[in-house]
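Bit of a strange request maybe. I'm writing a small parser for structure token strings and I need a real example to test against, not something I typed by hand. Could someone generate the tokens for this chain?
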Amino acid sequence: MAKILAFAGSLRKKSYNKRVLGVAVDGARHAGAEVRVLDLADFPMPIYNADDHEKNGLDVNALKFQELLNEHDGLLICSPEYNGSVPGGLKNVIDWTSRKSVKFALGEVFKGKAAAIMTASPGSFGGIRCLAHLRGVLSILLVNVLPNEIAVTFVGDKFDGDSHEMTDEKMNGILENVGASLTAFINKTNG
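Reply from user aminoacidic:
Good idea to test on real output. This should exercise your parser:
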């Protein structure tokens, strides 16, 4: 059974990206995956500084996140676009967890994993510019990023207020398919 770790790049409580992620998570679960959803706000880490890392070792929340990454076969990530790229908080988590620790080698917790990436925005581009950056960061860490990335445009129109239920049936199906595709890919590559 595919084990997937899912998280949004946003730290906001009522993030659209967290809601969009939830739809893809449903698709993965319906396809038979075991999915654990995390909130990056529960893993605060200082801004990565190699001097601090050398002096103090890996941040305690980075160690916890490394353990979680190691326990899963794949990643579902929905990231907002901040100034044409990924948010600093998301990049910081990746920077910390990709480092060598007492238990894991450099990049070990990412190497060979599969990932599906998506984004959402109230605007007409849907956050699409951040996905190339996220794909590049994950690829350099030897993550197999699926080609079917999704940008949800005008995301505010696709939910009824603060509801987590997506009202746009077509987009709902597309997002569920992303989760199902990741599950199928993991099952196929893991035998």
